[in-house]
Write a structure and sequence with these properties.
Shape: globular
Distance between the termini: 49 Å
Number of domains: 2
Oligomer: single chain
Number of strands: 8
Amino acid sequence: MTIASCGSVSAITLGLPNSTAIPAEKATLPKGLFVAKIPVSAKTKQQLANDIETITMLSLLQSRNIGLAAGTRVPEILVIGLRLHGLNAPVPTDIVELIAMQRKSGMLFVCVRDADFEGTTRQECAFAVRRALPARAGHTTTSKVFISEWKPAGEATLDVSDPTVESVDALWESLCSQVILDDPSPIDLNARLARRMQIAQLTAQVDKLTRDHQRAKNPEQRNEIYAKLHKTKRQLEELQGQ
């Protein structure tokens, strides 16, 4: 069987089990499939037509072919290759959003592009997932597309062997953790993600308050800003030390 590939990337190069690889003849997904049943903006349609060369199913991870317990929230995980058009193309977050919102399955996107590298070009790969952001009880949840760093295509791999992964649900958490935090652990991902988002928010506040303090002329205003800056730095240090 010839297995599906997106550029030089396949289920096997990603480190996924052979049993999950999709045959090449069944792998190509028509672009029109994703705009046929829902309203889509003209901008997104144009991006789909112009920025994506091909959409390919690389792997399907299910309880029966990976030896894990069935998921209660995530019935299966689709690994979808997006071959990007143009040099140094960014991850098309609108297209990831468009495709991921149409099925309950977990979807991990493998984005493959050609990129400049030391006077020549090479194939690079980045992963993307759409995931609900951590939210307090009673608050509306919103989703966001998270993107990994770009890597040479041959070095982009996924770890499906974490010993704490016992179900398809946990595997999805592990894969999301790899994309977002570069860590295969599926444990308490929402809490870890919320902590990272809080660190990013506090870091931005420290940068802004530092600039505000440098610009302030009034001594009373400078002291007030300094107090806020000191408090924010302390919160950031406590969070980073956890």
